[in-house]
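Office hours follow-up: a student asked to see two folded examples consecutively, so here they are.
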Amino acid sequence: MPTATSSRTPRAHAAARLERLPFSSYHRLLFIVIALAFFFDSVDLGTMTFVLGSIKQEFGLSTAAAGLVASASFFGMVFGAAVAGLLADRFGRRPVFQWSMVLWGVASYLCSTAHDVNSLIAYRVVLGIGMGMEFPVAQALLSEFVPTASRGRLIALMDGFWPLGFITAGIVSYFVLPQFGWRTVFALLAIPAVFVLVVRRIVPESPRWLEHRGRLAHADAVLNDIETKVLRATGLASLPPIPDMDAVPFGQRPRSAFREIWSDVYRKRTIMVWTLWFFALLGFYGLTSWLGALMQQSGVTVTKSVLYTVLISLAGIPGFLCAAWLVERWGRKPTCVASLMGGAAMAYLYGQAVLHGGDLTLVISAGFAMQFFLFGMWAALYTYTPELYGTGARATGSGFASAVGRIGSLIGPYVVGLVLPVFGQSGVFTLGALSFMLAAAAVAVLGIETKGRALESLSSDVAAATDDRYATATERVRGG
């Protein structure tokens, strides 16, 4: 039987050993497992869009109070995302990823038991902590296993499980909500948390992280196992030679990850990505959390408002597929800017359609176009963010960017509840459009391009200077 040891050296870097691997069914399996966990989390996150109107009616809430309920999970996500990044860079990606799933599963069930608005808000905060932990760690984990040539496409496709989760939440709500109520919806959505057992069995710890922490023997054992599985999956007799990446240091004593994201190398990137996440998520969740409730306010029944929101959200499927193609062909930065500007234009058009008569066909068409761009934005956002930082700060950088974004998510639904009575629905969508424009401006002015560059080449000035040599060596391996 072929072995993985025939073409490696004892002290070869994890990055070099992972980069030389041909893409195989083993990579696809890792992708599917991590993306499914992301999907189940996304179902829980999207549910509030469909059940908020029913919760508002049952508890007799004002628009401001309903906005507070919608924002509660995002309050938890701020804390969860920030803590998860620090924990994942300190203790590993795998354990944090697993515990996040357990936490949101338990909290989703607790939401189904809430019989007053205060307990529901408390449980939604706990649910948000679990969701906030899972999202940035999933980005970091997948990005560290996938070779450069496939990284952007797969991370963008992983984000595509977010609109699929959103649509699934709508489908579940469509069939369950009218007959059994919103509590049953939350109870059903707690069940997928048992998927953590699959994650524990299939997904290993990141060898890049193990090596960075100086755990070289453990990293070597994980890499041996990965290489053996890739050989078995591809049927090759031996793996390609390892590209020369010795200039990238490893096994050093790590410094504070939070200090690192504000170092000279990363400071501008951190300012850019925090601004991007804050305004993009303020606009997105400010709008989508209220879509169903706004339709009901316009006289649409609960069942039809759920159906129309699902129809609008179907645009997310071609949206993320288009973005997954563009991030590799066009680049991360232009795809991110274009999707945000397209979302801004369509959000404004949606508001104008509502303002001038509210013709249902026009409103749904404008909403469909808006979601096409906004779910494409998510694909670019999740691809771009983990590539901006090195291994020692990747989860922290992604986590704090997500945490800042969740502050925007927290503010967005509540602000909509305040803006709606004063400026109407057109004012709400104008607010969303302005938010997307500010996010696009931050990327256009401060962003860098990361397409086609190995993660290590983006982590320091020294590594960036030698990126061309790495890229040439990698291409020589893949071509030869």
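And the second, which I mentioned at the end of office hours:
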Amino acid sequence: MELILIRHGLPERRYDTADPPLAVAGVEQAQRVAAWLADERVDAVFASTMRRAIQTAEPFATQAGHAVIQHDGIAEFDRGSGRYIPMEELKRDNYEAWLAMAQGEHGVDIGVFQATVVAALEEIVESHAGKRVAVFCHGGVINVWTAHVLGMTPRLFFEPDYTSIHRFMCARSGQRNVVSLNERAHLR
């Protein structure tokens, strides 16, 4: 089966919630990724339970004729933080805080987070054998799943762009392969 992970669009910067809606630019990104994927036959559309992922999934799910199936196991590690600062802003405005977060010093057990994400995505894979599934999620989710597929120590090791596309082939035998990472031609 083909597992397509799509990062959410740019959300609003918020200090009162870790679950903000998409910013105006994020809404446009969601429309662009939906248009880019329009010709792909997809059998199911999943999203994390966080607003930014759901709002990114909705334009694509609507045009593909699917409901968005929410799954809590693919929510981001920061969901309990009480605030949301886009990574590029954090990196620009507070490099030390961004570096600590990137090195795993964000108060979350990255191994436990990866185990949760892997269990959720494997559940989706198993229940959709031979199909193509789009999963709208988060940068941390994409990082730990990719690290799992590559056999790496769980960590945040690359920066998926907003609405970037990441493709994986998942065989019934348990073999997992990276097809592509960080596709973003639709953002040009």
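Two things to take away from it. Helices lie at 24-36, 51-64, 87-93, 95-102, 110-126, 139-150. The chain has six helices and six strands.
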